[in-house]
Amino acid sequence: MSRSPFATSDEVDAVVVGTGAGGAPLLARLAAAGLSVVALEAGKALDPVRDFARDEEAQGFLFWNDERLSAGEDPVAFGRNNSGTGIGGSTLHYTAYMVRAQPADLRLKTDFGVAEDWPFPYEALEPYYDEVEATIGVSGPSPYPWGPARTPYPLKPLPLNGAAQLMQRGCDKLGIRTSPAANAALSGSYATDGTRFRPACHNCGFCQAGCATGAKGSADVTWLPMAAAAGAEIRPEAYVTGFERAPDGRITAVVYRTPRGDERQRCRNVFLCAGAIETPRILLLNGLANGSGQVGRNFMAHTGIQVWGQFDEFVRPFKGIPGGLISEDTHRPADADFAGGYLLQSIGVMPVTYASQVARGRRLWGKQLRAHMRGYNNTAGINILGDCLPYAHNFVELSDELDARGLPKPRVHFTMGENERRMTDHADKLMQRIWAAAGARDIWSFPRNAHIIGTARMGSDPDSSVVDPDGRAHDVPNLFVSDNSTFPSALGANPALTIMALALRTADRFLARGA
Ligand SMILES: Cc1cc2nc3c(=O)[nH]c(=O)nc-3n(C[C@H](O)[C@H](O)[C@H](O)COP(=O)(O)OP(=O)(O)OC[C@H]3O[C@@H](n4cnc5c(N)ncnc54)[C@H](O)[C@@H]3O)c2cc1C
Ligand code: SF4
Questions:
Q1: Coil, strand or helix at 290
Q2: pLDDT tens digits along 250-273
Q3: Span from the CA of 185 to the centroid of ligand 2 (angstroms)
Q4: C-alpha of residue 160 to centroid of ligand 2, in Å
Q5: Angle at alpha carbon of residue 276, lines to 274 and 277, rounded to 5°
Q6: Alpha-carbon distance 278 to 18, whole Å?
Q7: Cα-based angle 475, 478, 479 (whole degrees, multiple of 5)
């Protein structure tokens, strides 16, 4: 995947563990600064043209399918619901909604007295948001109706699919503002330095099953080619299990499993970017960076209730960009009885995914499920992306069950709090009204949670956080975390853009210290 391979006996400047939204931009930045960097990625190197099929079932290998145990009153679904693997991580199957957090998202404690404020304001992220959008090519409306004034998107918005058009109709009738969403699928062909020319999106709708054309800004066609062009080495099928350490506690090598056996890469620094479950799992397995007792704590999952309806007109929900329309009018609803807020977004859905939601949500099986699915082409959905507060009762731990590698499986405890229940209730009523106004029948709701967040919190206080505001572990001076696990609060926005922005910031802070 990359040139200039390093020997495992070379002491490289940095090892980056994981190549998703948090690892890939950071790898590109460190390599561009001239550092010797090796990325270790558990998943395979995939060739979208050769390996991606227009078949959602066949594409199941893009997901992190190792078993995770779910506990709590609202157990989170894993497998296809939450994270991916392969060179590019979860960005291989993300829907590519690229939503900026709003300044108020970063100060829930100040504004509502709950959760935690981020240790820096929105302005610290803003230049990095600009940079990410320009680098991977985000399509979106300019001006954007919500949030602070901002630089124009590099590309004009994408066309709206069937569900987006119906959501727009319902919202118009209720006086709710909508806008085409910002999305990392290209509305025109695009290239930036170090990336290959990428063609415009042709609206096939398969974003969550992997984009075969390279039109979607996943890490494998953006940050990682940039990193490789700058000299980074990217090793697939390299599953990190442990570390070697010097007497002063610094990490001196990363130990990983390959199809050929165990290997170790000597290094001066380590960046853990394995996602909000595998990152704390690796830390817990190695008893690392946990002086605060906060590793694995404060697990969050966005409140994500969906509302579905049937329409007289054809919707063909498999077609077009699935991440099409947005409203941020609900960012801080005037009648809210909860802290924080949510976004409204239209949904595109493949048939097998929809059938499984119907089976779980409406308990329909056999003949009844088949009868319902005859209306699939006339089905449209909206969902929310809502804040989730950090709670002590939601956490990741090591279970006593072992996986195929002989390592303890992670067990994830999740129970929604009163805040999430109130938000879900508020959003459910509003989305039911939107669908009724749009002309839907057989409207039904499917409460769910999405995205894995928290578990290695960033903060200034070493007693209540795992990493400092620069992403450096309080307890281990050459260990950094850059992924969804460092978020102190969940934000009422899809996470990937903020993860990428934060990754660039973490890399810059590290470089500014003299690496
Ligand atoms: C269906 C779906 C749709 C989504 N749509 C959107 C969207 O529209 N917008 C948005 O903002 N977000 C979306 N997301 C969420 C987004 O993709 C993730 O939040 C984001 O990619 C997480 O980034 P990360 O760096 O934390 O982890 P990941 O991107 O998951 O990367 C972690 C990487 O680490 C690797 N890894 C794990 N353990 C090890 C180990 N021990 N050794 C080596 N490597 C390891 C994994 O294989 C993986 O490649 C979606 C997610 C899903 C599931
Ligand atoms: S809809 Fe566009 S971005 Fe999505 S998979 Fe198809 S070509 Fe790629």
A1: coil
A2: 999 999 999 999 999 999 999 999
A3: 7
A4: 13
A5: 85
A6: 10
A7: 65
